[in-house]
């Protein structure tokens, strides 16, 4: 008997599967039914962690209970994916008099300001999945524009990655801004964090960014350069998907330090140690470019640049410039 592939037609389901942890659970359950305890052992996670994601996937109609077994008086639920494979077929977007466009990529505070400025002209829906996953979504037609800051091996941003993913040049690349990234920690720097090497201290808990994000790609490259194994960093496996969530976690004491943009640290009243400056670009599908003309035009206005440069650590000198790749 042939196995089935089910098309996905819900934006909420796409959001669920954009999380690599939930994607991994679904892929395991496509292979064979499993209990929460079995999934925990396979993934090296506590059952409570697995249960949290199972509930979300169950609510999203991506997994279901396959059977319930009673062994030695203990009831165990076996979960399975609701299909043997999923096909991402289309996005469900609001019906509106103004264009509704989907952004998928690296989180950026400047882009949020831009979306607010253009709210009367277009609706911009955000799916923050990191730079690399966002560009993959753009290639697959799952969004209209993406944002990326991937440091290539030539020391430039995004160009090699763009050539690899879009050899047919079906997209254009525009600079939104340059921005400063570094370590975010509590006011007064209570743990006296001065360098990446401080992340390996036993009294320091780090919060990472999601796999495929430009921030994490930079960090992993830098740790390799200074010969600091990620396994020596407490909390390296834990991550959030935006700069704002990273700053909030540090503010609330759920982590001592994270890596993110200076503007997020400033907005949450955190101290900040600058480490590098990066170029953040917008990749726009050629098919969607006419609808995005107001956004691309606004990048070059003095009023937008004034707003961008009001964000701590942002430089708008090259905003709106098209990048050849």
Describe this structure in words.
This protein is of the alpha/beta class and 325 residues long. The chain folds into two domains: 83 residues, Winged helix-like DNA-binding domain superfamily/Winged helix DNA-binding domain (Arc Repressor Mutant, subunit A, Orthogonal Bundle), CATH 1.10.10; 233 residues, D-Maltodextrin-Binding Protein, domain 2. It contains twelve helices and 13 strands. The strands form four sheets. Strands 7, 8, 9, 10, 11, 12 and 13 form a seven-stranded mixed sheet that branches. A two-stranded parallel sheet has the order 1-4. The protein has a two-stranded antiparallel sheet with strand order 2-3. Helix 8 links the parallel strand 9 and strand 10. Helix 2 packs across helix 4 and helix 3 crosses helix 4. The longest helix has 13 residues. The N and C termini lie far apart (47 Å). The relative contact order is 0.14. The mean pLDDT is 93.
CATH architecture assignment name of the largest domain: 3-Layer(aba) Sandwich
> What is Rg?
21 Å
Q: Under CATH, the topology of the largest domain is which?
A: D-Maltodextrin-Binding Protein, domain 2
Helical region count? 12
What class, by secondary structure content? Answer: alpha/beta
Unreliable parts:
none
Main beta-sheet strand count, sense and barrel state: 7 strands, mixed
Distance between the termini: 47 Å
């Amino acid at each position: 008997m042939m196995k089935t592939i089910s098309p996905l037609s819900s934006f909420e389901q796409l959001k669920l599967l954009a999380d690599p942890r939930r994607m991994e659970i679904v892929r395991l359950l496509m292979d064979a039914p499993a209990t929460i305890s079995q999934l925990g052992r396979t993934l090296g996670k506590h059952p409570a962690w697995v249960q949290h994601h199972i509930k979300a996937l169950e609510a999203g109609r991506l997994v279901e209970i396959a059977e319930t077994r009673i062994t030695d008086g203990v009831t165990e639920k076996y979960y399975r994916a609701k299909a043997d494979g999923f096909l991402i077929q289309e996005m469900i977007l609001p019906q509106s008099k103004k264009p509704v466009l989907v952004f998928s990529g690296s989180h950026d505070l400047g882009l949020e300001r831009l979306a607010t400025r253009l709210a009367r002209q277009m609706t911009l829906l955000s799916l923050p999945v990191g730079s690399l996953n966002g560009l993959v979504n753009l290639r697959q037609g799952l969004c209209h524009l993406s944002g990326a800051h991937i440091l290539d091996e030539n020391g430039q941003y995004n160009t090699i990655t763009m050539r690899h993913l879009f050899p047919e040049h079906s997209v254009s690349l525009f600079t939104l801004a340059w921005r400063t990234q570094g370590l975010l920690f509590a006011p007064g720097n209570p743990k006296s964090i001065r360098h990446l090497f401080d992340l390996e201290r036993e009294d320091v808990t780090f919060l990472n960014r999601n796999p495929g994000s430009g921030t994490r790609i930079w960090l992993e490259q830098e740790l390799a350069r200074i010969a600091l194994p990620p396994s020596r960093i407490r909390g390296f496996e834990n991550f959030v998907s935006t700069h704002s969530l990273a700053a909030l976690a540090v503010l609330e004491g759920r982590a001592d330090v994270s890596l993110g943009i200076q503007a997020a640290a400033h907005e949450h009243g955190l101290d900040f140690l600058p480490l590098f400056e990066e170029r953040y670009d917008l990749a726009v599908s050629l098919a969607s470019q006419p609808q995005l003309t107001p956004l691309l035009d606004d990048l070059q206005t003095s009023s937008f640049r004034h707003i961008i440069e009001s964000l701590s650590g942002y430089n708008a000198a090259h905003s709106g410039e098209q990048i050849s790749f």
